[in-house]
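Worked example (supplementary).
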Amino acid sequence: MKLKESFKLGGRFLRRTDAPAPVGSPALEHEIDLQHEDDETLVRRTQKGESAAFDVLVGRYKERLYATVYHMTANHEDANDLVQDTFIKAFKSLRSFRGQSSFYTWVYRIAVNRTINFIKRRKNRNQYSLDDVDSSIQNDPDLVELMSHVTPRREAGLAELHQKLNEALQQLSEPHRAVVTMHDIQGMTHADIARVIKCSEGTVRSRLFYARQQLQGLLSDYL
Amino acid sequence: MDCKKAQRLFDDLAHERLVPETAAHVRRHLAECTDCRVLEQRGARLQRLLALKRYERPAPEYFDNFHSEFHSRLLAEAQHTGWWEQALGRIENLLAIGSLRMWRYSVASAVGVAAVVGLMWTSVRPSGDFASQAAADPSLVAEETMLPPPHSTPSAIAASLTGLSRVSSSDYQPSTAGSVVLVPTPTRADSPAPRYVLDRIAVTPASYEVASVHF
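After joint prediction of all chains, the assembly is encoded as:
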């Protein structure tokens, strides 16, 4: 049975379908068409009231946003909540999105700002959830090298290594943590990070420099 | 190239973002400076260590319910949206309409100016009590409007009171309240211009002399 809901938010009607559209149906073909559209077109169609277009945007970026938020919070539940909040905020504010930056940069900025605010509020409540490490890490040459040089002080297993990494990251200030996450973990460029957090590239470089100095001190056993 | 400048370029060197000349300078510095070489190696190792965090990710099925959760939360938010938020949303949507988008700042400025003007107008207009009293007693309006300006000189006051010489003693009515009093004269009710008398100028001469001090 096809469950349909229709509700109003911010003056717009949103209609969704939980069950997948039947194969060969016009609805399914429409969804496939949307998958091939670029972000700009999807944003425009969402602004005109086509909520299915926003679903495509959510599907396109949820995992990347999730990864960034998770590396900043070190907690899966918090990351999930924050990414959902981010997309809700983005959906509600999409009418005011004027396309001065890309949709990804814009939604990324919302996610990072919300995460920073969340971390500030949480402050003394660090709960790591480290049970989800991809098994392919065992084949990573950097990890192999790291483990092959295990000294008496480096007998920590993989889980402990991740625990230490997360603890070290949590020691950084929120802006420093955001920059390290985006650059060293997510692999974003200085220019992209500057656009997301709305500062100069020089500021990004400076934050990265001081954050790494701090991390080198905190992770000296592994360096 | 000094150590400080070289250290700031290690990251760009590792990611091959430097122009060849600058990269050569940094490499030359690294070959000569042991401290910087150790620092660069530690930095590179730290980056490899942090990159391992990319493997911390949930299983793909973790996101299976993401869309339905998102829609549920969106629905819940919509149901708990207050009327003021809905009103703000409508205003925002109205301003976001293509034809109004260019004018949104102009409209906002015009509304702001109108608000300031309105506030100023309401602050300078007479209060309701006075208006009602004035309706009942027109002399109050006359008193208000015909009083000389507060900073007028005596000569200016005298010049403004041109009909003063024609006022007889019968017009005089002692007053105990103010220095300048409008005296409604029933006998001269048919006179077109109101008449004023200077009752008394209750000015107590002020002395600025220092009181004599006896030691």
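Two points are worth noting when inspecting this output. The longest helix of chain A spans residues 51-73. Chain A is about 65% helix and 5% strand.
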